[in-house]
């Protein structure tokens, strides 16, 4: 069964997503933007509803909504008022609820909400693989292009601005890459779990990395191991694949935190 075409497609899709979420998730961890990732992933359901209502590609709908939320968050950050975590909480739960309500009001539409919320990696087809690897190449290329200025802004935003880094443009580019990654990973592990693949492998990789580049590479490796272990466990015990991948990632993170310091680089 492990050599069946649908399993191999699922494995390829999962590894493709892990290759992207590892490096990008490292910046999410460094910049303490885990809640921001949750907000974008929750807004993805509103993008799906928009796609159905307008008759456009669902991935395009997700990108449009996530991009709008990202720009709104940047605008809010530069204004006085509510704390960032409060605004993020409002946007996250409001957009998720709006998406559910919009789908419920769409007559004659039958939507597999469980598939969108928790993923359906075993249903990945060849066309989905093209989307995942093509989009993943765009994300990695974009991340490579902004790596140095983004790293500088992450370490010290004010100093980076003095050195000529256009921090607002870099921040918007990074948020756009996160939005595209969420659109890529949604089918794999679902809207409610996608942020975990950005955070958990990157957090686990910190124990083994001495440089940012090493952490990005190790995070991608740990994400790949989580995909392999999660899919194997799902087949072995007849479990939902998406949550199994996240559980495998959590187990790897736990193992790295318990690893004696003598075995760390």
UniProtKB/TrEMBL annotation:
Main location (coarse class): membrane
Keyword Transmembrane: yes
InterPro entries: ABC_BtuC-like, ABC_TroCD
Gene3D superfamilies: ABC transporter involved in vitamin B12 uptake, BtuC
Membrane topology per record: Multi-pass membrane protein
Protein location: Cell membrane
Segments passing through the bilayer: 7-30, 42-75, 87-109, 129-147, 168-185, 191-209, 216-235, 241-259
UniProtKB keywords: Cell membrane, Ion transport, Membrane, Transmembrane, Transmembrane helix, Transport, Zinc, Zinc transport
Family membership: Belongs to the ABC-3 integral membrane protein family.
Main function: Involved in the high-affinity zinc uptake transport system.
Identification of the protein by name: High-affinity zinc uptake system membrane protein ZnuB
Organism: Halorhodospira neutriphila
Lineage of producing organism: Bacteria, Pseudomonadati, Pseudomonadota, Gammaproteobacteria, Chromatiales
């Amino acid at each position: 069964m492990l050599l069946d075409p649908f399993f191999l497609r699922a494995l390829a899709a999962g590894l493709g997503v892990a290759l992207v979420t590892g490096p990008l998730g490292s910046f999410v961890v460094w910049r303490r933007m885990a809640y921001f990732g949750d907000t974008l992933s929750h807004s993805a359901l509103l993008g799906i509803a928009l796609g159905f209502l307008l008759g456009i590609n669902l991935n395009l709908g997700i990108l449009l909504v996530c991009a709008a939320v990202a720009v709104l968050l940047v605008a809010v950050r530069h204004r006085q008022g509510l704390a960032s975590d409060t605004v993020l909480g409002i946007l996250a739960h409001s957009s998720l609820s709006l998406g559910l309500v919009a789908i419920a009001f769409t007559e004659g539409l039958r939507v597999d909400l469980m598939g969108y919320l928790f993923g359906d990696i075993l249903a990945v087809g060849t066309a989905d693989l093209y989307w995942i690897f093509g989009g993943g190449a765009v994300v990695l290329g974009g991340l490579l292009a902004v790596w140095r200025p983004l790293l500088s802004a992450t370490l010290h935003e004010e100093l980076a601005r003095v050195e000529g880094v256009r921090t607002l443009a870099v921040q918007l580019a990074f948020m756009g890459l996160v939005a595209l990654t969420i659109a890529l990973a949604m089918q794999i592990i679902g809207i409610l779990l996608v942020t975990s693949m950005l955070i958990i492998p990157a957090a686990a990789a910190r124990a083994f990395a001495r440089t940012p580049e090493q952490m990005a590479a190790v995070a991608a490796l740990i994400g790949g191991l989580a995909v392999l272990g999660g899919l194997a466990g799902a087949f072995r015990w007849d479990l939902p694949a998406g949550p199994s991948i996240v559980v495998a990632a959590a187990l790897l993170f736990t193992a790295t935190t318990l690893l004696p310091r003598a075995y760390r680089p």
